[in-house]
Please model this.
Amino acid sequence: MENYNLTQLRDEETNTLKDYINLVRLHIVPIVIIGLSALIVSIIYAMNAQDIYTSTTVIKLSKPQGNILESPLLPEFSDFGSDRFIANEIEILKSYTNRENVAKSLIDTFNVIGEPDSFYLILNQDFLENSQTNKIKSKSSIAGMLNSKVAIEQKRGLDIVEISVESPSPFEAALIANVYADEYWKLNLSYNRQQLINVKRFLKSQREEKLNELELSENKLKKYQEEKGIVVLSEQASSLIQQVTDFESKMNATQIELTITEKNLEQLKTALRGQDEKIAAYIESFATESYLKGLQTEIAALEVQRDRAIANSNETANEEFILKKFEKNINDLKKKLDSKIKIFKAGIFASSPEEVQQLSQQVLETEIKYNSLLASFTELDKIVADYERRFNQLPSRTLELARLERERVATEKLYLLVEEKYQEALINEQSTPGNVIIIDPARVPELPSKPNRMLIILVGLVLGLGMGFGYAFARSYFDNTVKTPEDIQKKNINVLAWIPQIDGVQADNREFEFIVSKKPDSIPAEAFRALRTRIHFSKIGTEGIHTILVTSSAPREGKTTVTVNLAGSFALANKKSVIVDCDLRKPRVHNVFNVNKTPGFTDYFFGQADFKDILRKSDVDNLYYITAGTIPPNPSEILRSTQMEQFLATLKEQFDLVLLDSPPIIAVTDSEILSRLVDATILVVSANITEIDLMQKATELLSHDQGSFIGVLLNNFSYRSGYGSYYKYYYYYSRGTKQKSKG
Model:
């Protein structure tokens, strides 16, 4: 194997697509296993997954329309507040109140239908197993379930909202969607009609009260006439009664309307204070402004004077003249009042947030209406008091009858007025629409929307393969072992050579461990010959290398195998070589040659054997070996002794090359001691076993001032698993060996 630049090879041939493909190929078995496992799980899940049906109700939400002052200044911003309004309505849709109403309606529907097979979500799933369990969930449980099973979404850019429900029962999915929309429609309608409902309730109570008062007054008049005989009132008394009752009924009607307006105003003010208390106070201060109240009082006074003048007029021509006279003044005052209010509206709406403009508008209008009614009531009260004085001046003979008649007529007029207002309130309530329109009711789906079984299987397969690839890359990323010569070169450590895996060598079978002797034409044997050449040229310009130490960073990295085969390759090159097993803790050289470890060189040191007894010849010409011998209690002291130096000098005189097999350098100091006695030291690391940190530590220990360390040998390297183009070397060697075998 020729010496070439590994750095250039790394720069040019690593990190290519082929490298990643090769990485995947190396881990193809776990990738396939993980991928198939995920595929099987996804198939099982897809086949057993429950069918889910989806049904959707489509509703349209209309934003309440205000007056021109609520409109935006520029047309292009006309929908600025629409999204906010829709968002608010969606929150109302999701509210617990609405969900609770839906839950109650679903329970009622279930009780009417009575078919559990048509339901799933609202049922207790274990009621079939336990007869004591209620079939249907509680209202609160159903309301909580709806929060997760009902999806409410706005179609982008539209006032359309979709209510979608998923359920294993297609009937239930459609039912829940429709009930959800119906209950929201009712809730929205009740919110929009809230003020009208309050007015209707108040008028209903007033209607019943006035009806009772009317019956009582009629009974009093009837009883009086029966006791006193039929008394006919004079024309003057009848006219006075007619006038006073007209104004009394107007005053009482104004009082009723004033009460209604006051209640509405208080509700609106409370709502506005919750949003912006400053605006509420500002509107109230404006409405009570003296100039404004003065205009309202003048208008009310003129209207009462107009009505009184008409009541005292007996001719139609006079009535028309009176109307023209008063109406001009009244209209002028109203224009001034409207102008003042319009200026105020423009100012307050220019500085108010969009969401409070409509509420502010309602508060302002109701406040103005309340003050106007109060002014009218005050003026009417004055007129009625004046008529009361005139009424009390009637002759005593007719006064009591006139009073009873007045009470009856006034009560009757007031009752009729309240009845009219009540009927108007009923009509207004029913005619006031909500801002919700159900466009497309939910229908019972025919096919399930979930699960998409093919998609689940496909996702499972992709996910499984992704997990497999992730496992391969993660294992490669977090694996801190030496894999290729490049890993050694990146640490600025010289790489002597790499030895491929020797087929047939396992922990319990060492038949082919001495590969250069057993299979001299094999790829590993050729790699050891390349290593021999590298060593020969590693120290050019010196007297040459005669003693070589082979060590490793940790056990089981193949240093003994490397030592024996390297010595064999030198012997086959007609170099008289000897192997000395200096691993005095766990020697293995005797196992390779299948002999006893004693006598060995330790026995020679202690005078228990002669030199000729410990030197043994192998089956390979020019190759000798010396076993460790008896294991001593102090290996380091023996290797550091003068006897060891003399022993090595003796071997150098008799042999061309002396190779020392030593223990791992990280574990003990034996190898570090021997490295100072030899000409060259080789560190053996095993691919996919030796950790890079241990390799670096070992090279630091061997890089001392003696300078014997010549490089690292990568053992058990798989050419097929290498990155870059290492495989071409495998192809070259394998082709060469085949040609030799043919020859």
Remarks:
- The two ends are 22 Å apart (CA to CA).
- The first helix runs from residue 6 to 13.
- The chain is about 60% helix and 10% strand.
- Residues 6-49+451-478 form one domain.
